[in-house]
Amino acid sequence: MPDAVTDDAETDDAADLDHTPAGTTVDVVVIGMGPVGKMAALLLARAGHSVLVTERKERGYPLPRAVAHDAEIARILQTAGLPVDAMPDAVEPYDDLYVWVNGDDQVLHEVDWTGTDPSGWNNTYFYNQPALEAHLDEQVHAQPTVRIERGVSARVADQDDDGVNVVIRVDATGAERTERARFVLAADGAGSPVRTSLGIDWNDLGYFFDWLVVDVLPGEGMQVTHLAKQVADPARPTTVVPAGPGRRRWEFMRLPGESTEELTEPARIWQLLQPFGVRPDNASIERGVVYTFNSGWAGQWRQGRVFLLGDAAHQMPPFAGQGLAAGFRDCLNLAWKLDLVLRGEAAPALLDTYTTERTMHVSDFIQFSMSLGRIICILDPDEARARDEAMLADRASGRTPEPPPAPRLGPGLHSGDTGGYLSWQGRVTAPGHAEIARFDDVFGAGALVLDDAALAAELGSAARDLEALGIRIVAFGGQADGGVARFDDVAGSYAEWFATLGAHAALIRPDFAVFGTASDAESVARLVADFVTGVRKTVPADEEAALVAARP
């Protein structure tokens, strides 16, 4: 299998894997309590680790920002104990088309957002971010191993082979103290003081556009299309989308010569909304703010024991609805690896794969979002006319539009042609579970899935290694034995997925990524050995033997 990529500046001694260094006051400090910081803290706390979350603001941001997420993010929320169908006040499924029209309302392009995604949830959801964050808050506060401190600033003072010293300053009084953490996660936003203090470069792609974002609360008599709609009008590119239960959003591109001040005047906002039938007598404006859409990513996502996540690590325009989604993917990719390292089951070198895997993955989404923006943000009438003609001709040809990208993880902990891609999640039944359920709710996200239990015959003691690494062995065919759990593939989704893979087994990591696939018992055993070796490859043999002996 490919080696985990390691930067010379990002090395760790594996000698302390099986204990917490003396003087440590907390396993992980999370700097920043936006949605990404909350998600990171929640995932680590649910794994049993102590977490201190710090935030400069005394209160959470009360107004909406991001509004859309896809099925993969619904699956992450499911893993975090927040299934979207249990949050009807915050999240609503979208089961229709995403329509692009020109200034004459001619349909240029349609994207089918109906149905269920292979991740096991609806293709698309729209949400109200403050309501969603309230659910995240509730879950984070409910974790007994989490401490939360607001109104404080946190800075990385120094670090060594065992941990990080973090200075916590109470902003109101200036009082300071030092916390000793094994790791620090900086989810402190686009301006990231942590990133700046560490001297980490920013790769600026030079893509800047200002857009007025208007959130509207519909009142009696307001009638607008329920569709998610992109109006590619050179006179004023505009986006119209749902914004979670009981809300709608309009986004208007700022034109050359317009100032931010005049664009955010209430009277001007109502003028922009009027053509859509939105007026003061049938709606109220929750907020109208101009945002600058940026694109880029940090040159390093890890410096020793400090990691960047979310906007601190990457930014993209909102045209693909993947900004917050990318931050949640950061959390899941890093959390399961940190969990193994903190428990002494993995070498710290595994953490280097966070940067190598996520940087390439997120860069694909950044480029995709920018490509959409280049189509949408055309202001020249002649250029827009040429675009419309090309898109109308393409639509008239009957050619099926290409789906959005399904990026692969960059180099890291995966193997073969199928490794690094997103796994499927189907509906299953299993002994002890009377009702049909999603796979992850029954077995957890990490699994070695077999179409015949007999394929586990040559695993031997490696089965215990998998269990220690959070990987269940399950099968939807053959006779289950003591080491293999049995489930019924209710809708045939796993059989369909395996047919597309050309495989009879798939090893799925806890972050839903496929590690690799296999076709017979011998290759299953090799696959498992490669995974275990990849996780533990720098653990000295005597320590690994001690870890195995210490397990029940």
Concise structural overview:
It contains 14 helices and 29 strands. By secondary structure, the protein is α+β, with helices and mostly antiparallel strands.
Descriptive account of the structure:
The protein is of the alpha+beta class and 552 residues long. Helices cover 29% and strands 26% of the residues. Strands 1, 2, 8, 9, 10, 11, 19 and 20 form an 8-stranded mixed beta sheet that branches. Strands 6-5-14-15-16-13-17 form a 7-stranded mixed beta sheet. Strands 26-25-24-28-29 form a 5-stranded mixed beta sheet, with helices on one face. Helix 1 (35-46) packs parallel to helix 7 and helix 7 runs antiparallel to helix 8 (352-376). Mean pLDDT is 90; it is low at 1-18 and 538-552.
Number of helices: 14
Taking pLDDT < 50 over at least 5 consecutive residues as the criterion, the unreliable ranges are 1-18, 538-552
Query: What structural category characterises the helix and strand content?
Result: alpha+beta
The major sheet is characterized as:
8 strands, mixed
Q: What is the arithmetic mean of pLDDT?
A: 90
The Cα radius of gyration reads 25 Å
What is the molecular shape? globular
**Relative strand content:** 25-35%
Quaternary = single chain
Let me know the number of strands. 29
- Helix content, binned percent: 25-40%
Topology, pairings included?
Elements: E1 26-31, H1 35-46, E2 51-55, E3 68-70, H2 71-79, E4 91-94, E5 97-102, E6 107-112, E7 124-127, H3 129-141, E8 146-150, E9 152-159, E10 164-170, E11 176-186, H4 193-197, E12 202-204, E13 209-218, E14 228-232, E15 238-242, E16 248-253, H5 260-263, H6 266-273, E17 283-293, E18 296-298, E19 302-303, E20 306-308, E21 314-315, H7 323-342, H8 352-376, H9 381-396, E22 427-430, E23 433-438, H10 439-443, E24 447-450, H11 462-468, E25 472-475, E26 485-486, E27 488-489, H12 493-501, E28 505-508, E29 514-518, H13 521-536, H14 541-550
Parallel strand pairs: 1-2, 1-11, 2-8, 5-14, 11-20, 24-25, 25-26
Antiparallel strand pairs: 3-7, 4-7, 5-6, 9-10, 10-11, 12-18, 13-16, 13-17, 14-15, 15-16, 18-21, 19-20, 22-23, 22-27, 24-28, 28-29
